[in-house]
Amino acid sequence: MASGMKTEQAGDGFPRHVAIILDGNGRWAKQRGLPRTAGHSAGSENFRKIAYYCRDIGLDYLTVYAFSTENWKRPMEEVRTIMRLLGKYLHEAIETMERDGIKMRVFGDVSGLPGELQELVARTNEISEHYDGFQANICLNYGGRAELIQAAERYARDFRDGVVSEPLTEERFGSYLYSAGIPDPDLLIRPGGELRISNFLLWQCAYSEFYFTDVLWPDFTTGELDRAIAAYMNRDRRYGGLR
Ligand code: IPE
Ligand code: IPE
Ligand code: MG
Questions:
Q1: Where are the domains of the chain?
Q2: By alpha-carbon position, which residue is closest to atom 8 of ligand 2?
Q3: CATH superfamily of 5-143+184-233
Q4: pLDDT-based confidence at residue 1 (cuts at 50, 70, 90)
């Protein structure tokens, strides 16, 4: 599908928000006899390509899982390379995002990231406030359970301090999540062959449609995304009701 897809297909059934678990970088590298870090580098390049495509076909939001709260368990050298690549990506994005019409937000515990990365995240957020348009959310040092706990703690604090007095509703709780103000993902894609959620967007994916593929993330093309969206558009979303 070419990049005019939105005008032809937006509206009925076209997703507004797609989430992707960027998995399979290590295996992609292994298949080629390369170090795992080469897979992360290829994965980072692919994110750039897919993000532009998502903007072009008219999605409103793309949320990607780039580094989980559990990924710190990996060898220090691999973690360091991933952090360096994320820094490089954000640094380049800061130069081009406004021109390219891409807003960016980071979901996760930014305070646990290296100082340099924290500064880049702050700069990215600041630039994103100045314009509207397609938004890419990058989940960094993100865990679904950690997100729920920080939201519960912040709500409890606000309640104790009298900032809120109303009972807790799903809507109000959602406003304490990193994704506050953003509609839930319509479609969650996991490349890399694993059939699990790995602590991603546990609250927000309550009614998302799931799409799994064996294709490894660095090999995931715009054509694969078209296939996932086409599959999504054939789904019958009932939200517990009848049709
Ligand atoms: C995803 O690729 C990137 C991160 C989790 C940081 P992996 O590194 O998990 O790649 P595989 O699953 O080992 O192939
Ligand atoms: C999920 O992939 C996390 C990210 C892609 C950032 P993992 O490779 O960490 O997940 P598991 O360990 O296979 O569940
Ligand atoms: Mg993996």
A1: 5-143+184-233
A2: 23
A3: Decaprenyl diphosphate synthase-like (3.40.1180.10)
A4: very low
